[in-house]
């Protein structure tokens, strides 16, 4: 089981930041082709998509939480539950928007040249939908969370 690190930034409202994100890959052949197109023509989006993939597989990782000074494990779990709820809501919005844009980009596939628009949107949709589905099923109580004091 791999480990990911989640850092809680200090302040009035704790911000959650994921670090140590694994490289983007997929078992789906069409998604891998889309990743290759994005790697060539839009490499900046790959880090974002790696985060989406990580959200989609969050239950498979051991989670180390840093920066939660003075917080109990129950408070960290509550904070992560709220963070996951916000991520789930945002992913739902993205999936609906991408489904509306998908027919437009399918027509753009008829244009000559690399089909960055369709493959790019398809890969983003795939990882957003996978993250949404996974975040809907994951229960924070089932995550393997450990607090790491700095």
What this model shows, in words?
This protein is α/β, with parallel strands linked by helices and 150 residues long. The protein has one domain. Helix content is 55%, strand content 15%. It is built from 4 helices and 4 strands, in the order ββααβααβ. The protein has a 4-stranded mixed beta sheet with strand order 2-1-3-4, with helices on one face. Strand 1 and strand 2 form a beta hairpin. It is elongated and about 60 Å long. The chain starts with a strand and ends with a strand. The relative contact order is 0.21.
Shape: elongated
Roughly how many Å is the radius of gyration?
A: 17 Å
Count every beta strand, where a strand is a DSSP E run of 2 or more residues: 4
- Give the neighbour order of strands across the main sheet: 2-1-3-4
Number of helices: 4
Distance between the amino and carboxyl termini: 23 Å
**Strand portion:** 5-15%
Structural class designation: alpha/beta
Could you name the ranges where pLDDT drops below 50 across 5 or more consecutive residues? Answer: none
Element-level helix/strand string: EEHHEHHE
Largest sheet: 4 strands, mixed
The structural domain count equals 1
């Amino acid at each position: 089981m791999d480990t990911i690190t989640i850092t809680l930034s200090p302040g009035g409202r704790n911000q959650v930041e994921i670090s140590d994100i694994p490289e983007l890959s997929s078992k789906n052949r069409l998604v891998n082709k889309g990743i290759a197109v994005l790697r060539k023509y839009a490499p900046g989006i790959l880090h974002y998509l790696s985060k989406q993939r990580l959200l989609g597989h969050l239950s498979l990782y051991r989670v180390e939480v840093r920066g939660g000074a003075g917080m109990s494990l129950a408070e960290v779990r509550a904070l992560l539950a709220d963070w996951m709820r916000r991520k789930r809501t945002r992913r739902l919005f993205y999936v609906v928007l991408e489904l509306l844009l998908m027919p437009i980009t399918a027509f753009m596939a008829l244009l000559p040249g690399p089909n960055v628009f369709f493959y790019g949107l398809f890969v983003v949709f795939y990882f957003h939908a996978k993250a949404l589905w996974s975040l809907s099923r994951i229960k924070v109580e089932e995550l393997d969370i450990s607090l790491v004091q700095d």
